[in-house]
Here is the input.
Amino acid sequence: MQIVQIVKRFGPVGGMEEYAYQLSIELSKMGHQVVVICEKSYVNPSMDIFVVETGFHRKPNWLAHYRFSRKVTEWLIENDSPHRVVHSHERQLDHNVTTFHTTPFGHGRGPFFRFLSLRNYFYEELERRELLGHQVRAIVPVSNKLGEMISSKHIGAKENLLGAIHPGVAAPKVKPKERVVSADGGTIGFIGKEWERKGLPKVVQVWRDLKKVRPNLKLKVAGPLSKEVNHLFSSNEKNYELLGYVDDKPKFFELIDILVHPAKLEAFGMVITEALSFGVPVLCSSECGAAEVVGLNSGNVLSEECDSEEWASSASYILAQTNNFTFTRSWASCAEEYKKLYELIS
Here is the structure.
């Protein structure tokens, strides 16, 4: 079976891109003929995966989506194959399967929002044809929470909407070390470039609240530049560190005892499963898609609307526990789920 994967950037250069990249590798290992159509590949050529680059398309982004889509359609027509499945991760037109990675456009805003500008209108149209096109056989959200958002906005999508296929996460190269957290200390971790949406202000307040009973508690913040978030801290505060962009996530997870992630809205939240895979317990918001994989022994889930005192209380409880859990979710397992889906619809 030929499997065509469509993603604008091919390689481990983002959450969606990592998903498509790792899935393509695992499908190829299974013996499938994998073709990737992208604007640009960020990895070295592979003998097992045939990559088609269309070149970049100029902004605005909504127009670039249409231009990329047209190039994909042209390639599919010119290289027709009777035994193939077309799987898109983008706002496409000629796919059989689409994996939805982000919250629906304009989520939480009224219907009038789509008419406020041509940009909004065309983004709505791109989303509608991705989900409701006559050739679509399966819609796969990366979390069940995201699936609920899709079905709420696009009633017509329910017929083809499936349960989530969660992304995989790379297993640690070395066994995570056992964490021993002192009664008066410990280290809270936060990671996220979009720091405001991901809840850094609340994390800072949780850290302050917890320092009343854990005076040596530390906070390590990865992702945003120092100049972007310095204003969240007073000049006399200590025991916090702004790390900026972190390329070595394993090293970051070794430094912390709990990941706090009170995001306002997150279709999945790869950092949550990455932390769990390193044996780091997680306290996250119910607004994160990945919250559905956080177990009772690996952390807790709260509403983002809960106040910082409730978050601090939960974080304190987690830090006081002897956390001994394992979390695994291989990309091979992810690919196996897709293999069964492809066979079902082909």
